[in-house]
Amino acid sequence: MAESPVLSVSRVAKFFGNKLVFKNVSCHVGPGEILLVAGHNGAGKSTLMRIMAGLSKPSAGAVSLGVEPEDTAYLGHATFIYPGLSALENLQFWGSMYGLSSDRKALVGLLKRVGLERAAEEKAGSFSRGMAQRLNLARIYLVEPKLIFLDEPGTGLDPRSLANLRREITGFRDRGVSVVWISHQVQEDTALADSVLVLGSRKVAYFGPAAAYEMEAPC
């Protein structure tokens, strides 16, 4: 028997005033699956992800989660870091919000995982966009969610950090964690996904296996 989806989206539509963003969007994500969301700028990818994550209400349709809300994590365009705190203090604060241990060694290990161990005591307000994004990724790793929403997580990352991010994303699958991932680097990232959802012309242009989309996608 197939496992129940971690995320199900059924005939979702979104309007802003009289403006239709998209309609009749349906998809699903199983345990340990990676869904890549693609589409041109303005297609509504970030809006759809916010609806999936429960941060915005659809105008029509429904979204259901197969995990508890506290078992989800969301990384959007805003990094949510506190500029007056150091990288380590940011992780300690976020951990306290989830009732997690503030063990210094473990937190430094998370910073090492994203290449920020040498900046552990530096104020986050001095970080570049790429460094801030890496600290935000460490926040995601900290809470060990079962379902992760990543809205263009590669923004601002150098090639080495981007390669590490891709390894982490495939590592989530190996640990049974589901990922919904918006990417503009579709050709490179489709190979890492299980399924692909493409938004176009205010509706779903494609939803299905990543391998089949690779064959259909233009070179």
How would you describe this structure to a colleague?
The chain starts with 6 loop residues before the first strand and ends with a helix. A hairpin with a 2-residue loop joins strand 1 (7-16) and strand 2 (19-29). 32% of the residues lie in helices and 27% in strands. The longest helix has 16 residues, at 159-174. It has 7 helices and 9 strands. The chain folds into 2 domains: 1-67 and 149-219, P-loop containing nucleotide triphosphate hydrolases (Rossmann fold), CATH 3.40.50; 83-145. The chain is α/β, with parallel strands linked by helices and 219 residues long. Helix 2 (87-97) crosses helix 3, helix 2 (87-97) packs parallel to helix 4 and helix 3 crosses helix 4.
What's the arrangement of secondary structure elements?
Layout lengths: L6 E10 L2 E11 L4 E6 L5 H8 L7 E6 L6 E4 L11 H11 L6 H10 L15 H15 L3 E5 L7 H16 L3 E5 L3 H4 L5 E6 L2 E7 H7 L3
Helix pairs in contact: 2-3, 2-4, 3-4
Q: What's the CATH first level of the largest domain?
A: Alpha Beta
- Percent in helix: 25-40%
As laid out across the biggest beta sheet, the strand order is: 5-6-7-3-8-9
CATH superfamily of the largest domain: P-loop containing nucleotide triphosphate hydrolases
Mean pLDDT: 90
Radius of gyration: 18 Å
Shape: globular
Approximately what portion of the residues adopt beta-strand conformation? 25-35%
Poorly predicted spans: none
In this structure, how is the largest beta sheet organized?
6 strands, mixed
Number of domains: 2
User: How many angstroms does the end-to-end distance come to?
Assistant: 37 Å
